[in-house]
Each structure stands twice: as C-alpha cells, then as structure tokens.
Amino acid sequence: MTRLTTEQRTLAEHFMPLAMSLVQKHGLKYLDVISREELESAALLALTEAAGRYQPYRGISFARFARPAIRGAIQDAIRKALLERARPSGALWLIVDDSRGGVEQVDAVEAFDALIALAPAKYHRLLRLVFGLGLTQLEASQVLGCTQPRISALLAEAIMCLQSDEPIVRLPSRRRMRRVRRA
Description:
CATH architecture of the largest domain: Orthogonal Bundle
CATH topology of the largest domain: Rna Polymerase Sigma Factor, Chain: A
Number of domains: 2
Number of strands: 2
Radius of gyration: 25 Å
Distance between the termini: 78 Å
Helix content: 55-70%
Largest sheet: 2 strands, antiparallel
CATH class of the largest domain: Mainly Alpha
Structural class: mainly alpha
Order of helices and strands: HHHHEEHHHHH
Shape: elongated
C-alpha cells in the first residue's frame, strides 16, 4: 500500500463513520463467526485504500466511491471467517450471497440434493454422475450406455429445466406416436 497524502488521510478520517455504519449494517449478524474488531479493521483498511485510489476530478463523491469497497471488504472478511470455521469439522460448505448483499453458510451436500430434486427424475442420475462425482461427459456416457453427444444434450436440457420456472416437457417423437396410434 502506498503512503497517503495529508489530504487523503484527512478524507479517510472524515469518512470513518461511514465505514463504521457499514460494519453496523452488514456485519453485526455475523458476530458469532467474526469479531467486531476484525470487521472494523477490514472496513477501515478498505476505506484507507479507497482514499488512496480516489480521484475527485472524476465527479463522483467519495462516499459513493468508497461504499462498495468497504462493503466488499466486510463481506470478504465474513466469508473468510466462515470458511475457516467450516474447515476444521471436515464438512463441505457453500458460501452463498443472498439478495440483500449478505452471505449465508449452506451445507453443500444438502444444497446439491435440493437442486437435483428440482430437476425432472430422468436427469437425476446424470446430474449426480457429472456434477456429484465429477465424471466427464464421456465417462458418464459409458456408465449410462449412450453417446457423449446424447449426454451433452441431456445436460443442456437438465440445466434449462433448472434455470426455468416451468419444467420442460418433452413430447414423444413422431415415430413413437405412430406406434402408439397403431396399438
């Protein structure tokens, strides 16, 4: 980090209440994971770095310039603390950003199972092979007894199902429809 000029130091000192208010707003619900002092330290470091990078001639207020950097530093400190806390137990955890700018600790296996449950049943085994076990599409095709391009197409369908609000319904082929009509 470069040395701050007197003006930059004054700017950072003047906006210390902004950093503390962001700690108050975004960090207090995680005090069971990380100490307030660590959050304040991360916020003040980000404030100081923002003061060093701030260029007033660009026409943006310092508060508007510094706020995202401070909030990001707070969230990074929380993520780091959550990861350190999860490591000793041996459990696999996901750190998920929520829509309000906070973070949430989620058990990765439970999240994966819940996600697969959202997909139509015909995709469950394929999703577990590719994303759960880490098999390549070629390896999954050998396990399932079909071609790699078919696996690719099925994965694309499964991902589309998971991304859309409504499940994709696949209509039977014309050939199969003819068989149904004759029967």
